[in-house]
Design a protein that fits this description.
Largest sheet: 7 strands, mixed
Bound molecules: pyridoxal-5'-phosphate
Number of helices: 12
Order of helices and strands: HEHHEHEHEEHEEHEEEHHHEEHEEEH
């Protein structure tokens, strides 16, 4: 008889996107001639930059010749040329990480989900509410106890640590999905101090760091003093450079970072993660790593920046609309997400239905990201400028 991992039975069914799809389908069946503007998708829409595409083609071409063909990459950690490029990128915003501490992966979702493997079931895991669902799901699958730090209207949807609460692993995401909030240096210093006081480890998801415009805001946890003793950072090129369909990310684990066995003996986290990856992961394709390295060249950065500027212009249009309408929101300034309070105390789903029926705009009900999302709503800046302008003009007419 085959037995299941019963932790999977504790997973909450993620009805959010299924329910959204059902509602859209029903609406379209009744209104076949009415086009919808989709502002709920968290996926990028602009193509990858030309210099990046060229690098990928060159890498693919190399695979076709005996002299330059590549099989498995020996270290399993990613090609050195890419790890060097990522380290240089970190240096450009004031974070010192060694190329040897960078591990190339197929994206941030895999690493956020897989990192739980190296931490025991006895950990208490602190996750902000609301949050990107992978953190809760992957820790539930591995049977860990989860507690929540409240992100709410009062703290600008940027939860802060509470010294009276004990935990061992902490998930932080900044700029945040879904709330668009970004931690300041002082706030991250508090999280680092808290983590160190608990001998806990912060898993810092910086998937949206490239959207930070305000140079005083940290783009990496490693911009914070002391973070090397208590943090792992997970990032990817998905949102930075439109790699959602290419798949390439990186995780940084400082070589000195330790966690503990049940006897209280320190164990090196970097080695443990390499051991895990060595057994279960065989690396990212060579052409994709070539493309990824091209992102970090001056031309690559300039070209990908144009795409981010395009999305951020959408975010600006959305923020301006919320300002005009007097709607409370977080995000939109240093992130592609606008997290807004549903007007007139509407529930998230009521607001979803209202926008769908009245102005044919689709967003994401906040409660899909956790209980604190009730009454809040996420819009994304990843659509076209024309659609964003049109959706915002309809919203203004509707709510004025
Ligand atoms: N982290 C956050 C906060 C995200 O929103 C996403 C994707 O939407 C990811 C990680 C995963 O990105 P990927 O697996 O494409 O690198």
């Amino acid at each position: 008889m085959a037995f299941i991992n019963e932790n999977f039975l504790d997973l909450k069914e993620n009805y959010l996107f299924i329910d959204i799809a059902k509602k859209i389908k029903a609406y379209q069946a009744e209104n076949p001639d009415k086009a919808l503007i989709r502002m709920g998708i968290g996926d990028v829409t602009l193509p990858i930059a030309p210099v990046v595409a060229e690098a990928m083609k060159k890498g693919a071409e190399e695979m076709t010749h005996k002299e330059t063909f590549k099989g498995y990459e020996d270290s399993g950690r990613g090609y050195e040329f890419l790890r060097e490029a990522v380290a240089g990128y970190y240096r450009s915003f004031g974070a010192e990480v060694d190329p040897g501490e960078i591990l190339i992966s197929d994206g941030a979702k895999s690493d956020c989900g897989n990192i739980v493997d190296i931490f025991g079931e006895n950990n208490i895991v602190l996750i902000t509410d609301p949050a990107y669902p992978v953190y809760v799901d992957s820790n539930t699958m591995s049977g860990k106890d989860i507690i929540y730090a409240s992100s709410n209207e009062e703290n600008g949807f940027a939860a802060m640590p509470d010294d009276s609460v004990d935990c061992d692993i902490i998930y932080l995401c900044s700029p945040n999905n879904p709330t668009g909030s970004v931690y300041t240096k002082e706030q991250l210093e508090k999280w680092v101090a808290y983590a160190k006081s608990k001998s806990a480890i912060i898993i810092f998801d910086s998937a949206y760091e490239a959207f930070i415009r305000d140079e005083t805001l940290p783009r990496s946890i490693f911009c914070i003093e002391g973070a090397r003793d208590c943090a792992i950072e997970i990032c990817s090129l998905s949102k930075t450079a439109g790699f959602t369909g290419m798949r390439c990310g990186y995780t940084v684990i400082p070589k000195e970072l330790t966690a503990y066995d049940t006897d209280g003996e320190p164990v090196n986290v970097f080695k443990l993660w390499c051991r895990r990856q060595g057994s279960k992961f065989n690396g990212v394709s060579y052409p994709v790593q070539c493309a990824a390295a091209a992102v970090f060249t001056p031309e690559g950065l300039a070209e990908t920046r144009k795409n981010i500027d395009y999305y951020m212009e959408n975010a600006r249009i959305m923020s301006e609309t919320c300002d005009e309408l007097g709607i409370k929101y977080t995000g939109g300034k240093n992130s592609p997400y606008i997290w807004l309070k549903c007007p007139n105390n509407m529930g998230s789903w009521d607001f979803f239905d209202y926008l769908l029926k009245e102005i044919r705009v689709v967003g994401t009900p906040g409660e899909g990201f956790g209980p604190n999302g009730k009454g809040w709503f996420r819009l994304t800046a990843f659509g076209s400028k024309e659609n964003t302008i049109e959706a915002m003009s309809r919203l203004k007419k509707l709510l004025k």
